[in-house]
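FORM 12-B: Structure-to-Sequence Request
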């Protein structure tokens, strides 16, 4: 089917010449033909374009990752001087980066990772952009945990050092509290000292829980561990109370041992535990209430669908919470049930991980090294864990990869109906095998996203959901990549805002010039003569 492009619309001729020379020089086989940007329905794969106030369309982003590029990098890349992002990762390029790249004055992101034969030395102009912080430069191995980039190393090391410091502080505080608690118990009657261990958060009685939940009438949901109720404390703080179902075999002492651990876990992207109850065989945990609901429900919202920027931030903040559980807790805490319904949102759509530790707090096998039952939700469950019964932090990584795919596609992890049904991970892999990225993106975003950004996050999710855990990244690596995507999205947003501002300014100036010419205030043709 052919479409007629608007009269006068065209891609900047120098960009067309440059991209065709790049195509010929590197023998790119992507089905590129015709105008690279127009019509928009037939824009070249991996190419992103932007039109300015003069209706001139420029190539502003180029994603040639895993495109089979070999040999020295073509100098014609420097002629695409409106480029903001250039991704050349996972190819077989060699030699030095051409000095013509210094012409890319608008460039903010350059990725040459996975090209082992290429020199990583930047031309002088790009080196200055890197030094003043206006360029993000990725090189070395494709795995962010082994990159030789000093800038990236600093980004990764600083959070690790902070987590080590936090862990030391937490360990010290816990030691002092245990010592103080032991001293207090030694002064109590013997029968009282053998009771439930004292923990820091408030202990509620059964009558307290009844009053807060309006006699258990304020039910807001039911989970795998029992019912959830809402209510208010005396100070007006709204809370959510998770009451353990009567079918659980967990003992009071084991439950309290795990609850004690949970009260010591604090992070801005983890839902805070406010208290607990073990009165009259009622075991419950009292949490902060999250006004925004959960991510699972939010992704189904057709009236106010999440934008790509909001989705990306939710993924990043959730990853921070999981990274804290894996790295800062001693011993490390594996969630075991990562899913969109366990990612809660506050009124500002800030994400927090919920139900961490509940698999152990409500599990009678928690004291053993290997649980006798598989814990998790179908569609999110790590296939390696399911087959081997060996749980690891990489099991959380797999589940989080499924969450990322849900965020991108808006589809549940398992679809049971229609020819498009089946497992989400397999469905996405099938679509991507044909290079069809746009067909998986949630249509509720109405094409308001950068395709390169979506590609990058989708590839990350694919690595997270590898069948073998050794092939998956750590949560620290996931956090690092999502942070890069966030930074890229912010830089692209800034460029679009600047372009819009310039457009308004140009239109206003053209209107002023027309009025002055019409009133005889300036010549309508030719340069002014003084």
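FORM 12-B RESPONSE
SEQUENCE OUT:
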């Amino acid at each position: 089917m052919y479409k007629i492009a608007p009269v006068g619309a065209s891609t900047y001729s120098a960009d067309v010449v440059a991209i065709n020379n790049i195509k010929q020089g590197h023998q790119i086989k992507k089905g590129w033909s015709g105008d690279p940007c127009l019509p928009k329905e037939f824009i070249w794969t991996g190419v992103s374009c932007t039109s300015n106030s003069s209706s001139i369309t420029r190539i502003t982003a180029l994603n040639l990752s895993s495109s089979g590029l070999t040999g020295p990098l073509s100098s014609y890349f420097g002629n695409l001087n409106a480029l903001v992002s250039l991704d050349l990762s996972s190819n077989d390029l060699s030699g030095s980066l051409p000095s013509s790249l210094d012409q890319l004055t608008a460039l903010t992101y350059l990725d040459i990772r996975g090209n082992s034969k290429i020199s990583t030395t930047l031309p002088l102009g790009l080196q200055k952009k890197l030094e003043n912080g206006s360029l993000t430069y990725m090189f070395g191995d494709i795995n962010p945990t082994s990159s030789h980039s000093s800038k990236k190393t600093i980004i990764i090391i600083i959070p690790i050092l902070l987590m080590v410091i936090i862990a030391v502080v937490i360990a010290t505080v816990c030691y002092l509290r245990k010592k103080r608690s032991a001293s207090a118990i030694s002064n109590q009657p013997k029968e009282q000292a053998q009771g439930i261990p004292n923990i820091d958060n408030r202990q509620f009685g059964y009558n307290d829980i009844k009053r807060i939940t309006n006699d258990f009438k304020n039910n807001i949901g039911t989970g795998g561990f029992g019912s959830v109720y809402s209510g208010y404390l005396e100070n007006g703080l709204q809370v959510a109370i998770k009451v353990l179902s009567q079918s659980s075999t967990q003992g009071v002492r084991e439950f309290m041992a795990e609850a004690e651990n949970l009260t010591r876990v604090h992070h801005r992207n983890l839902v805070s535990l406010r208290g607990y109850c073990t009165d009259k065989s009622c075991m419950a945990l009292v949490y902060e209430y999250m006004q925004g609901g959960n991510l699972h429900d939010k992704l189904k919202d057709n009236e106010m669908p999440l934008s790509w920027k909001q989705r990306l931030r939710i993924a990043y903040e959730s990853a921070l919470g999981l990274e804290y559980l894996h790295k800062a807790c001693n011993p490390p805490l594996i969630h075991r049930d990562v899913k969109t319904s366990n990612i809660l949102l506050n009124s500002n759509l800030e994400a927090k991980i919920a139900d961490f530790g509940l698999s152990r707090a409500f599990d009678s096998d928690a004291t053993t090294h290997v649980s006798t039952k598989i814990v998790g939700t179908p569609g999110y469950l790590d296939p390696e864990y399911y087959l081997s019964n060996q749980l690891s932090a990489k099991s959380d990584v797999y589940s989080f990869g499924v969450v990322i795919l849900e965020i991108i596609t808006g589809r549940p992890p398992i679809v049971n109906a229609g020819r498009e049904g089946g497992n989400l991970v397999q469905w996405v892999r099938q679509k991507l095998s044909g290079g069809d990225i746009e067909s998986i993106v949630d249509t509720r975003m109405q094409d308001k996203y950068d395709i390169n950004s979506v590609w990058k996050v989708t590839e990350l999710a694919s690595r997270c959901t590898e069948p073998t855990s050794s092939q998956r990244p750590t949560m620290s690596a996931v956090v690092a990549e999502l942070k890069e995507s966030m930074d890229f999205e912010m830089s692209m947003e800034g460029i679009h805002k600047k372009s819009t501002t310039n457009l308004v300014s140009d239109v206003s100036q053209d209107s002023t010039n027309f009025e002055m010419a019409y009133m005889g205030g300036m010549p309508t043709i030719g340069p002014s003569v003084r």
